[in-house]
Every structure is written in structure tokens, then in C-alpha cells.
Specification:
This protein has 3 helices and 7 strands; from the N terminus they run βββαββααββ. By secondary structure, the protein is α+β, with helices and mostly antiparallel strands.
């Protein structure tokens, strides 16, 4: 896996491209000298957690023939200052599912994702605690 980064302006706005040619952008907030034209690198980390777990959960539930009509997630990260850096200390994820889905299957799919399959979560695991909850058809399971 390889990513190329190219600086766009004289500050912190960058273009990133993967090996397949997909392009995205990174910037920093105005209060730290950026122009806030794109998500920050740490916001992309949270997006990675959301996206990775979504792929896992949906894949697991599809294999179990569950009918998903809607999938959303909210991810919140708490950071802590350590030697000048501010890594995530805790990441909480709420998965919202709608459809013909057995609640126990949704809960198990999330458990498998966050505790076994999601490479992003597993990468962060040594330094950040990831907690999650699952809501199926507006009911927490």
C-alpha cells in the first residue's frame, strides 16, 4: 500500500493520491495556520475507524442475510497531550442500523469488527481504547 502526498499551497493544504488514483485532501484548522479546506489528519483517522468497521459490519450482516436499509455511524475521539503530540486516548463509536436485522446479530457483527477484523481499530488498539455501541431501528442493543 502506497500513498503520494503533494503540497498545494504555502501552508498545510495537501493532495493525497493512492496507487489506484483516488484523490483526497488534508488541511489544518485556521487556528494552527491552515485554511480549513479539508479534514485534518486526525479527523481522517476517525473516518478510517468509521469506514473500516462499516465495511466489516455490513459484510458480516449480508452473509447472514440481514436486510440493511440504512447504516450510519458517529465517531468521537478524545485526545491527550503526550510529549508535544496529541494522540487519541479514547474513541467511541455508535453504529446505527435500520432494516430487518436481528439485534443480537448486529451486536455480534460490531464485536467481531472492533475486536477482531477492523485493521484501523487494531492499529490504534495499543494506544487508544475503542468503545462501541449498536443501535438497531432506534433501540440500543
Amino acid at each position: 500500500m502506497k500513498i503520494q502526498l503533494k503540497r498545494i499551497d504555502n501552508d498545510y493544504h495537501f493532495e493525497l493520491k493512492n496507487e489506484r488514483g483516488h484523490v483526497t485532501y488534508i488541511d489544518s484548522k485556521a487556528e494552527v495556520g491552515g485554511h480549513d479546506l479539508a479534514p485534518s489528519p486526525m479527523e481522517y483517522v476517525l473516518m478510517g475507524v468509521a469506514g473500516c468497521s462499516a465495511i466489516d459490519v455490513i459484510s458480516i450482516l449480508k452473509k447472514q442475510r440481514q436486510e440493511i436499509t440504512d447504516y450510519r455511524a458517529e465517531v468521537d475521539g478524545t485526545r491527550v497531550a503526550i510529549d508535544g503530540a496529541k494522540p487519541f486516548k479514547e474513541i467511541s463509536v455508535t453504529v446505527f442500523l435500520e432494516g430487518e436485522i436481528a439485534p443480537e446479530k448486529a451486536k455480534r457483527a460490531a464485536q467481531l469488527s472492533f475486536e477482531k477484523y477492523c485493521s484501523v481499530s487494531k492499529t490504534l488498539e495499543p494506544t487508544a481504547t475503542i468503545i462501541y455501541k449498536v443501535v438497531v431501528n432506534n433501540e440500543e442493543v
